[in-house]
Amino acid sequence: MPMTLEGNILVTGANRGIGLELVKQLAEKTGGEAHIYACCRAPDGTGAEALRDLTTQYPGKITVIKLDMSDEDSVSAAVQAVKEQIGDGGLNLLINNAAINKPLSPAPLSATGKQDMMEVFETNVVGPFLIAKMLLPLLQRAAEMKSPGEGDKMSCRRSAIINISTLLASIEKCPESFGLAQMYPYRTSKAALNMLTRCQAEDFKSLNILVTAIHPGWVRTQMGGKQAPLNPPDSVHGMLSTMSSLSNKDCGTLLDWQGNPIPW
């Protein structure tokens, strides 16, 4: 399905891996009126060089915003910067992609401490909670500004939150992969993100804001590792195609990168 995303789009964790590829493909494939807010912890650091190159390659299309998802003040400052840029406009799509995994995989119980759990939860759950809460007025404005047209009222072209989750967060599917990667902090934080998705979906549906969780697949990134079968361009192409087709029926669901449902 062709990608039909548009408007103001914010991506967290945008300096590498899936986040960087999201920004790249959004810049390539969206229309001239679309604008991408690419957020990362250190926009001026060496780790964001590829992101800065994209801003040069697509002049006027991408705004890089400093954002540390584990720091409430940083989230607040980033939201304020986006508000100033958007002005009277709304935010059409928030993609919560930023996430961390501690300790290193397979992260068994014996290697996992309280600090690992707390740091992962701060970034993977509390961060998405705070940024959605703070950006809600802009998401609501986008929903009110854009006519839904015929049929479904909710879509990623109108107003939506996409929380990047994982198959590893599926409680039903856990026994299939637990022996290979216990990953207590990552699994439990993403399961909590799934519940956040369900809560937001219920809370925001009266505002016509779509909320869906998407598993990107096992992707060859710094986090996914070299053995992963899927490369970032294919994963992101699939996810963006899936996002383009989301509607009312998908609100509050967990889907894979090809749009297939995953059990909770």
Give the SSE map.
Blueprint (H helix, E strand, L loop, with lengths): L7 E4 L5 H13 L5 E6 L8 H9 L4 E5 L5 H15 L6 E4 L17 H32 L14 E5 L9 H4 L6 H21 L5 E6 L16 H14 L8 E3 L8
Parallel strand pairs: 1-2, 1-4, 2-3, 4-5, 5-6, 6-7
Task: Give an overview of the whole structure.
The chain has one domain: Rossmann fold, CATH 3.40.50. The longest helix is centred in the middle third of the chain and has 32 residues, at 114-145. It has a seven-stranded parallel sheet, with helices on both faces. 41% of the residues lie in helices and 12% in strands. The chain has helices spanning 17-29, 49-57, 72-86, 114-145, 174-177, 184-204, 232-245; strands at residues 8-11, 35-40, 62-66, 93-96, 160-164, 210-215, 254-256. The mean pLDDT is 94. With 264 residues, the protein is an alpha/beta fold. α1 (17-29) crosses α7, α3 packs parallel to α4 (114-145) and α4 packs parallel to α6. The protein is globular.
